[in-house]
Write a structure and sequence with these properties.
CATH class: Alpha Beta
Helix content: 10-25%
CATH topology: Spore Coat Polysaccharide Biosynthesis Protein SpsA, Chain A
Largest sheet: 7 strands, mixed
Strand content: 25-35%
Order of helices and strands: EEEHEHEHEEHEEEEHEEH
Structural class: alpha/beta
Shape: globular
Number of domains: 1
CATH architecture: Alpha-Beta Complex
CATH superfamily: Spore Coat Polysaccharide Biosynthesis Protein SpsA, Chain A
Number of strands: 13
Distance between the termini: 35 Å
Length: 234
Amino acid sequence: MSAAPSHAMVLAAGLGLRMRPITLTRPKPLVEVAGRSMLDRALDALAAAGVGEIVVNCHWLGAQIAAHLAGRAGITLSPEDELLETGGGVARALPRLGDQAFYVVNADILWRDGAVPALERLRAAWDDATLDALLLLHPVARAVGYDGVGDFFLGADGIPVRRGTAESAPYLFTGVQILHPRLFADAPAGRFSLNLLYDRALAAGRLGAVVHDGDWFHVGTPEALPEVEARLRG
């Protein structure tokens, strides 16, 4: 890609059930970690990458997200009366995301860049002719606050391979990616997961991956907050 994506979507509509009781009164993207909300950190990274137009979806306590973003330029809200999951949420926002590849970032994760910002590394690795989706992966062994078993292997050609029936896989999906609108051709209506479209892209040989070389943090529970904050401040 010759230029960085000008549009992005931030997924901020989750319920944050594991973060209760904090998320009983505050949406998870607005939970502050080391003095700044996870949503603001995602938006700051996108702004630094040159993104001027950002769609933010919301559902649980969405009025708080709307009020929080009222002073930010270039933000369009996409409220969801019913949760549409990751795929349905992006599909609904497509008319506002332009006709070129765009970033999608989860608002409930944190990352710290390596020598080159992660979004810039994704942009540099994007090939519009051969890819429909490009995922930022992270080594499970270096993830902070993560208790899962991983999502992908990487083939010798750098192509991601699903964990499938294996007990574990060495890489997790970070929630940071570039997608092209054509990925959503023939996507189902309503609620669905982006995993459906990743599998389609993988089958067509049009799913790529970049391995993150910085830090990645999963703030899944209130008990995880102190550890993540200590690592961020360190």
